[in-house]
């Protein structure tokens, strides 16, 4: 555990910035659901085929690289501290972000989509996770959020619909650059079951009553018997995602506008027109890129 925290904590006194220039290693505990490989011979959900057919009906899985990507920053002692106001306290109870002053780098910018996502890794090993974050002049507000620990399970709070950490499962710039993603992925779907919560999920924002809906917390895996070296046109980014899904799978964490999508870190050089040089070099050409060369029909939903 200590090794994990030392790899992720910002050195004392350092000012900070986007995580695009930082190799964080793998966050969360070694026994986190995100860091444990799918067991060999894992059983399938009886409805797997129908759920996969619905989730991959467009022949793609969307890479959320910009508008609904996740900006990740590191805060050090040189960064300003704010009293953060959460505007949904009255509905959902006290917001953890409002329990003390939070350091946020001056350069921090939330994602541009309606989630307004923002993650700030603090030098004490805590992770501040903002939902619908907004900077107003010299102050910050958020609709709600969570504070998790880099040494924890990767689950807890209300920064995602299923109660997962907003940092958990996010594909990072350093991982795409290296070609290796050593953890399960964060998935979203437009067909998230209403009222169904499958561990390790803690809750759901699902609204689907279809028989082929995906439950919050469902774990999807790309068929591990698939030989990726035989798949034509597979770029480095798609290959890294596919391999991670074979080994670790991915957890359904949120309701979204796409049939199925994967969360990526927002690159420091990203714009509405380009996801940034690292992603482009890996063959991930634009925001919402569908990763069409991966044989998505070979996904499967594991039994809960």
UniProtKB/TrEMBL annotation:
It comes from the Bacteria. The keyword Signal applies. Keywords: Signal. The keyword Signal applies. Residues 1-19 form the signal peptide. This is Lipoprotein. It comes from Microlunatus spumicola. The lineage of its organism: Bacteria, Bacillati, Actinomycetota, Actinomycetes, Propionibacteriales.
